[in-house]
Amino acid sequence: MRRSLLAFAYVAAALLALAFLLLPILAIFAHSSPARLVQQLSNPVVTDALEVSLKTSVLAQLLIVLLGTPAAYLLASRRFPGHALAVTLVELPLVLPPAVAGIGLLAAFGHFGLLGSSLHAVGITLPFTQSAVTIAVAYVASPLYIRQAIAAFEATDAQLAAASRTLGAGPARTFFRVVLPLARGGLIAGLALSFARGIGEFGATIMFAGSLQGVTQTFSLAIYAEFARNFDATLAMSGVLVLFSIVLLVALRIGLTWQRSSSTGSPSLFGLTSSS
Amino acid sequence: MRRSLLAFAYVAAALLALAFLLLPILAIFAHSSPARLVQQLSNPVVTDALEVSLKTSVLAQLLIVLLGTPAAYLLASRRFPGHALAVTLVELPLVLPPAVAGIGLLAAFGHFGLLGSSLHAVGITLPFTQSAVTIAVAYVASPLYIRQAIAAFEATDAQLAAASRTLGAGPARTFFRVVLPLARGGLIAGLALSFARGIGEFGATIMFAGSLQGVTQTFSLAIYAEFARNFDATLAMSGVLVLFSIVLLVALRIGLTWQRSSSTGSPSLFGLTSSS
Amino acid sequence: MATLLLDRITVALRSYELELSLEVGSTLALVGPSGAGKTTVLRAVAGLVRPRAGRIAVDDDVWFDGPRGVDVPAERRRIGLVFQEYALFPHMTVRQNIEYARKHGADDYLERFRIAHLERARPAQLSGGEKQRVALARALAREPQVLLLDEPLSALDAHTKTAVRAELHDLLSTLDIPVLLVTHDFEDAAALADTVGVIVDGKLRQTGTPSGLVAQPADSFVASFTGANLLHGDAEPGPESTRVRLDDGSVVATADPAHGRVVLAVYPWDVTVASEPPHDSALNVIHAPVRSIAELGNRVRIAIGPVTAEITAESLRRLALVAGRPAFATFKATGTRVVAEHEDR
Amino acid sequence: MATLLLDRITVALRSYELELSLEVGSTLALVGPSGAGKTTVLRAVAGLVRPRAGRIAVDDDVWFDGPRGVDVPAERRRIGLVFQEYALFPHMTVRQNIEYARKHGADDYLERFRIAHLERARPAQLSGGEKQRVALARALAREPQVLLLDEPLSALDAHTKTAVRAELHDLLSTLDIPVLLVTHDFEDAAALADTVGVIVDGKLRQTGTPSGLVAQPADSFVASFTGANLLHGDAEPGPESTRVRLDDGSVVATADPAHGRVVLAVYPWDVTVASEPPHDSALNVIHAPVRSIAELGNRVRIAIGPVTAEITAESLRRLALVAGRPAFATFKATGTRVVAEHEDR
Amino acid sequence: AARAQLTVYAAASLTDVFPKIDPAERYSFGGSNALAAQIQQGAPADVFAAANTTLPAQLFARGLCSKPVVFTRNTLVVVVPAANPAGIRSVFDLSKEGVKLVIAGPGVPVGSYTLQVLKQMNLATAVLKNVVSRETDVREVLAKVALGEADAGFVYSTDARAVPGKVKTIKVPAWAEPKVQYGICLVSAGGNKAGGQAFVNRLLSKAGQAKLIAAGFLPRMKPKR
Ligand SMILES: Nc1ncnc2c1ncn2[C@@H]1O[C@H](COP(=O)(O)OP(=O)(O)OP(=O)(O)O)[C@@H](O)[C@H]1O
Ligand SMILES: Nc1ncnc2c1ncn2[C@@H]1O[C@H](COP(=O)(O)OP(=O)(O)OP(=O)(O)O)[C@@H](O)[C@H]1O
Ligand SMILES: [Mg+2]
Ligand SMILES: [Mg+2]
User: Fold this and answer.
1) Is chain C adjacent to chain E, meaning 3+ CB pairs within 8 angstroms?
2) What is the fold of B44-231?
3) Could you identify which of B118, C27, C230, E12 might form a hypothetical disulfide with C179, taking C-beta atoms 3.0 to 4.6 angstroms apart as the criterion?
């Protein structure tokens, strides 16, 4: 009696949680027909925003991968004084309100910022450019990649890297042929998360880069701007992004599953959760 | 020769990444003196925003823990048809742009929303109230807690729960005396992350709750609003939030370390990263 | 003493179906290779896995009965289960671990298992042998009707294993409840249990006393598991004995009747070694190079061609064998057993 | 054959400092309890851990020399290291694993180790024995100057272990490079190596042939590690032999001179068992209840009071012993060795 | 007991002056169009004060608020950073190569006024090519100029006073000046009609108007010449 009550309460709570998470997404689609979704794809505001979002996101992710991967590997494989501090630092943008990040970026790279005048002197102006969007996105999204990358590198068996060394491979060959392939699943998962976070970026972008259609107005900014003008269009645009997010998550999950099963022989459909 | 070049490039990339992440934070403090930080604490906009943020965040985290913990435990310990889908669903808000989440919440609970009219009929209006802030924060921040909670529950040794059963403990006693204490570190880490994410919430809140000083204007929204009036105040407020974030991260790290070393006997200063 | 009865319990596993009946009086050891389903049997008795069918009972207490729909939940079956890696609660002290099973009177158990001085320690700070004592104390603190032990020795160093095994043996002999223990090591099983059951792929191959299994292995798996050499060949009934042409060409005789493809089991201690050809023509002789010589205390294991012989250290000294040089391994026709071929997975 | 030389290498570990010198000719086995530092020695030779001081060389190739600041990186030391859990690359096939060590001629190694049919398989799909063959093939594919094996048998089932051990022995006897292997099982060490070194807490206790260690254990640790009973007591020199009053009150004689607190080592095969008191008054006698009887093939281990005896199955039948009833364990004064007390961690 | 607090949704340009007229109420300042959108979504506002008359009129047409009245007026100006790095002296200079101009987004009242001016002066194409960002309300435009990130922006003359010393104002030629009228209405969904009306009355009162004028706003009726 007491027992079944407890089990019931617990399943009920779980279902309530799922329903709460599902409802807003269902609501978006309930309010916007497929026809409207398609129609939005010819709205220049939407297409421009899509282009800006994709371009800056791809560049930002490139930046994140190129700088974040060595940083993550360093933090995962070496212990040095200040290590804990560095890890904290890497995670800080994750817990920083995006508006604060935007302020910080302005204070650092803005006209009167710490580096602003030096940059200006060499002819580089960042605010209001697409580069500013890229930087804002990279700043805000990087912890998601770096965290996951650190975890992925830490999870790769140190014995395997040692084995590679004893088989005559130097550090570079060991990294590219053993460590990287083994960490790949985690890196891809991290990249997908950071990509998603980047697409959703709002606060830091509007502060640091402004919002100009075709240049700095990302999809998220466009949704915000359109909200004040045309709620139905906003719904349709949101629908597009929800679909995009779902595709991203599913790709991520399938990618991880494939990665895992091909490397360890144990297929799992629960890749993301259990690896993170 | 080639070898040292590679090592150099890799350390350089890592340092560049760290510098990039550090600079905006340094810049905020470079621009705001401690005196100014303190002075801001008597600005009613700041104090109101602080109150709103704390109140809604605490409520939201309560909601997340009460509903998210059973959901996470269910997803971690049971395999059922649609399991993978449920896990994806739980993670969706993580990859959903917050502005889209806000639109979704409006579409679900708003005046014209799926549930809005039913709610209205029973006298409940959610959008643009303080409850709306709580809901927006809970929606956006929940995946961070639930993900970590699933991982924490999955990481607890199933043998220990089985052992508890064979020692005469029913499911409830097993959960509260064995599973929960073992997962505690992960749950606290998840809660800290989700708390931080909630404090930083912007896009979904402004869409679903608006920005009404003393009611729905959270710290993040206040920073955005003050940015337009008084950049110096904004810097000071940002400084406050950065400090708060750092304290949160460090507390989290120390908490995890303590938790780990007391339960497994192997102290580690790198709790967060390796557990996530 | 009570009796634990497993009556045709069936559990569907990943790659095969476990199906067995078992009666456990005093102490029964279940041995078998990894993945044979040994742990699954214990989990079924404990109520941690639900069989598809069958019946589990201790005397008149029925814990599981497929047809009647009886399935007593794990926490209401009075069993003591010691897990393979002990499964001590890492966040509790030794005392708290025991009090988890028994609110009052933990002191008795702390005394009895000589862990009173460790009562405040956490499991991470214990040695393997100490962990095992705590796990046993905790399992018995419930005053179970049945004790289940999963690989009680495998988490231990080879070096501490002997001492702990003796200790465990002493303990088991003082208990008067059925004990079902599981191991993949025949030596451990023989040292601890009166009866040994060999399980492979979820089926019980043979049950008997340790010496009974050695004397009459039911098939080639049991034979090799108990330490026999296996010789493969083709049998042809002869006038006095069966003649077997081994796959390497040599011919040996066996007292067992057989025909066609067979496997002969020969235990190392039934093989003698000589540096000269033996005079006794009734003996089976294998003439081949010495592959290896390993001394273990006063015994020496010598591999000659397909067979391994176990002789005393003194004999070795007398023989002056050299690895790589040929020698003669001899054994009686009555020292061989024809066993059924077992298809290894 | 070349010689691997470790000259006073020192490695700081968590709770003690490893410090040892070692000369490896053909095959040397390092045995010791868990955490003794065995793996660390191999890692130091391989260049995976950097000693604080000392010198490591193979003939004239110096790999490490503390004072001179020589430290050849791991990838430039020609060693073959087989890891405890084999450390095969999970994302590569068997062939790719071998080609990682050797671009051309992988086929030879696939053939030689009988894994050609597995070349496309990934490590996760291999059995323990197959994994070991791949790991050996990969380690040897580099044509190393030295082969290092870390617990080559511990990842295997008790049941497959015997076969794989014989196979490994065959392989090692064909190699003409120094082999340093590490195990915590004295039996494995004795079966595979010519020389055995016992290491405890980073220090080498004793080095010798397996039978040499049994004959003259340097201390109580080595004695118990090689299988001896340990009897603690107080010694008093007597006219012909030393008399030792054991802690349980009984008195035994030993041929070794000693005085004060001592440990006596007695090997089980030097103990005989009787149901009647022996007539020979020169023998040591322990009269105590039989604690356990375990049959292992043709041998039987009988624990009587503080000693365990190993007798044949025939003797057991003759004696009609019953567990719990008293019996007599006897051993000669010359069958005992006084060994130094070892403070166990 | 204190009377129930009003919830006032007001244009960003009223940020500084409303609390001076009535410090007791709760305010949400922002782009008038965003506020109107929130009201359409059911935001529980009592009063809506916009920087134009069209937005309240639209709400009125949908039955979401009462008939709007004009309560004040304003003028559009160009602001440049105090240092004026782009050397802008008149609206015409905004078409110079390389000027970084920020304006408000389409739909935001000040954005519409800006476009009106530029069209009127036939500068639309030439000047709009220099726009680097379209902000969500007038205060964002002001902030970007005050920080020196932008070279110029269109704001109300009252906004320029909020950052004294940081910006310089440049007038729009009188012939091109748009008619900037602020409309106010009582939101139908709001629970406090009486309080809302009292608030409107306070604005329209002499004292209210005086405070508006002191803040740089214009009288609600154009003085008859
Ligand atoms: N819950 C399960 N569902 C399906 N198959 C399972 C389950 N648990 C274990 N198995 C499979 O059942 C088989 C028997 O597992 P079990 O753990 O009983 O073996 P074991 O004899 O104890 O082996 P070991 O000596 O390795 O502990 C294995 O092949 C295993 O993969
Ligand atoms: N990198 C390290 N730094 C400090 N201490 C270490 C390090 N690696 C291992 N140790 C410690 O050194 C000791 C010896 O470890 P090692 O792995 O060499 O033991 P082992 O003899 O191989 O044991 P096992 O039989 O369990 O494999 C252990 O106490 C271990 O905790
Ligand atoms: Mg098992
Ligand atoms: Mg080791």
Assistant:
1) no
2) MetI-like fold (1.10.3720)
3) C27
What is the side-by-side order of every strand in the sheet holding D195-200?
Answer: D79-82, D146-150, D179-183, D27-31, D195-200, D203-208
Query: Are chains B and A in touch, 3+ Cβ pairs below 8 Å?
Result: yes
Query: What does DSSP assign to residue B175?
Result: I
ipTM over 0.90: no
Q: With contacts defined as CB-CB under 8 Å, which chain A residues touch E31?
A: 228
Non-local CB neighbours of A206 within 8 Å, separated by 6+ positions: A102, A221, A224, E136
A26-84 confidence digits (pLDDT tens): 888 888 888 878 887 788 888 899 899 999 999 999 999 999 999 999 999 888 888 88
Please tell me the residue having the least CA distance from ligand 2 atom 14. D37
Nearest to residue C139, comparing CAs of E136, B166, A124? B166
Q: Where are the domains of chain B?
A: 44-231
| DSSP, residue by residue, E2-15 | PPPPPEEEEEGGGT
For every residue of E21-47, DSSP letters joined together read H-TTSEEEEE-HHHHHHHHHTT---SE
CA of A163 to the centre of ligand 4 (A): 15
pLDDT per residue over A4-27, tens digit each?
Answer: 777 788 888 888 988 888 889 888
Enter the pTM of the model: 0.84
Strands (E), D201-259: 203-208, 229-237, 242-246, 251-254
Q: Which chains touch C (3 or more CB pairs under 8 A)?
A: B, D
> Quick one: fold of D4-223?
Rossmann fold (3.40.50)
Query: Is C80–B168 a contact, with Cβ atoms under 8 angstroms apart?
Result: no
Most ligand 2 atoms within 8 A of CB, residue of D39, D81, D181 to mutate: D39
| D326-331, strands of its sheet edge to edge | D272-274, D326-331, D284-296, D299-304, D307-312
Burial D119-154 (b: 16+ CB within 10 A, else e): bebbbeebebbbbbbbbbbbbbbbebbbbbbbbbbe
Q: Which amino acid is at B45?
A: V
The domain defined by D228-339 folds into OB fold (Dihydrolipoamide Acetyltransferase, E2P) (2.40.50)
* Length in residues, chain E: 225
Cα nearest neighbour of B169 on chain C: C75
Mean pLDDT (whole number) for B70-75: 92
Beta bridge mates, D58: D4, D61
